[in-house]
From TrEMBL:
It comes from the Bacteria. This is Mg/Co/Ni transporter MgtE (Contains CBS domain). It comes from Krasilnikoviella flava. Residues 354-415 form the CBS domain. GO terms for cellular component: membrane. InterPro entries: CBS_dom, CBS_dom_sf, Mg_transptr_MgtE_intracell_dom, MgtE_N_sf, MgtE_transporter, SH3_actinomycetes. Keywords: CBS domain.
Length: 423
């Protein structure tokens, strides 16, 4: 083991994990500790994110070195998805931002970090806490934040649990580099109370992106416990089809109340989607694909599909129509495929490179027809048109997969893998 026998855990988040020959196998996303009735909490392993966004357990007994910017492990990782067990606590997910009380009666503090130290026995124990003392409200005090200090773990109580609301600033700071899908995985693994605390600390746009990646049960649990005004703001920030899917899972009275609280323009598309059966193209489509007029330059079209928040499937083509360009549009003209746009001069118009033979769907088309057309023509998205050939929206392959896969498919990806031993 490396000479660095004390490690502050918040600083370890995102650290690369290497195997003995120097190949990167993943990144540290959390650490697992056992909080015992007597004695210091014992650290038993790291939660490591490996390719494929899977989180696996790496026992500390298989860690040979923890140095600046890297963790060295022995041998291969067991690739079974990490599942938190009873009596285990996640350092970043559950212990940071927790309110603890000083045993000497001098007040309360917020845990901002904690250190683990390797003992002669080989065990890793939590020995110190980096905390920020809570300031009592004293009118217009200029000192906004309490002093920070490092204290022994036995100098406080309340680390094992608290009835008070727990903050999430340090957890989100540790995970600020995560994509929405990865952060959704983190939230999914947290307990119900902690999940809501973390979700509530996200801004509307970030929470909307994360909700779109969560299973429906988690979405409903979070939105149902948010203040109604905040929930409506988050729904406005979601893609209309995702917002409609979520509202479909809520009780009718609650869904109606949230729709009334949304801005009329934002609620209009969602109401339209809710009018279609969820097993049809209309129920699956998004009303916000990239829609351009035929005179738009290819350079502008490429700039539109480069937007970071555009799903890859919808970035595979632009939909070209006569004005108005908001759905329902004027007459639909065709699509311009991404690869074709790359081969043409930037100053040319998208109208000059149209594919006018693309298959299209009516909003009443059943999901079976949607999947057959996507597969038959190797497409990532299809236009949905009304009887007057106006573009209503587009169905993408990821929307179809989300619909036809079992609700719990994420939970069974690794069910055939071996059980993970834990110390």
């Amino acid at each position: 083991m490396s000479a660095a026998t004390r490690v502050f855990m918040a600083r370890l988040a995102g650290t690369q994990v290497f195997d003995p020959i120097g190949d990167e196998v993943g990144r540290v996303r959390d650490a697992v500790v056992l909080i015992r009735a007597k004695g210091a909490p014992r650290a038993v392993g790291l939660v490591v994110e490996v390719p494929g966004r899977r989180r696996v357990f790496l026992p500390l007994t298989r860690v040979t070195a923890i140095d600046a910017g890297q963790v060295i492990s022995t041998g291969l990782l067991n690739m079974r998805r990490f599942e938190q067990r009873a009596m285990e606590s996640l350092v970043l997910g559950e212990l940071l931002d927790r309110t603890v009380r000083f045993t000497d009666g001098t007040g309360e503090a917020i845990v901002e970090d904690l250190s683990i130290t390797r003992q002669r026995t080989g065990d890793w124990l939590v020995d110190q806490l980096f905390v920020r003392r809570k300031q009592a409200a004293r009118g217009l005090s200029l000192r906004r934040r309490g002093e920070t200090l490092v204290v022994p773990v036995d100098a406080v109580t309340g680390l094992a649990g608290s009835t008070q609301e727990q903050g999430a600033a340090k957890l989100l700071e540790a995970y600020e580099d995560l994509r929405p899908a990865d952060l959704a995985d983190v939230l999914h693994e947290l307990g119900d109370t902690r999940r809501l605390e973390v979700a509530s600390a996200l801004d509307d746009e970030r929470l909307a992106d994360v909700l779109e990646e969560l299973p429906e049960d988690d979405q409903v649990a979070i939105v149902s416990r948010l203040d109604s005004g905040r929930a409506a703001d988050v729904l406005e920030a979601m893609q209309p089809d995702d917002a409609a899917d979520l509202l479909n899972e809520l009780p009718d009275e609650q869904a109606a109340r949230l729709l009334e609280l949304m801005e009329p323009e934002e609620a209009k598309d969602v109401r339209r989607l809710l009018s279609y059966d969820e097993d049809t193209a209309g129920g699956l489509m998004t009303t916000e694909p990239v829609i351009l007029g035929p005179e738009t330059s290819i350079a502008t079209a490429l700039a539109q599909i480069r937007k970071q928040d555009l799903p890859p499937a919808l970035a595979s083509m632009v939909f070209v129509a006569r004005p108005p360009l908001e759905t329902p549009t004027g007459r639909f003209l065709g699509v311009a495929h991404f690869q074709r746009l790359l081969r043409e001069p930037p100053h040319a118009s998208v109208g000059s490179v149209l594919d006018t033979d693309t298959e299209w769907l009516t909003p009443e088309a059943p999901v079976g027809r949607v999947t057959r057309l996507l597969a038959a023509y190797d497409l990532l998205a299809l236009p949905v048109l009304d009887s007057e050939k106006r573009l209503l929206g587009a169905v993408s392959v990821d929307d179809v997969l989300d619909h036809i896969l079992p609700d719990d498919w994420r939970e069974h990806v690794d069910e055939n893998l071996q059980e993970v031993p834990r110390g």
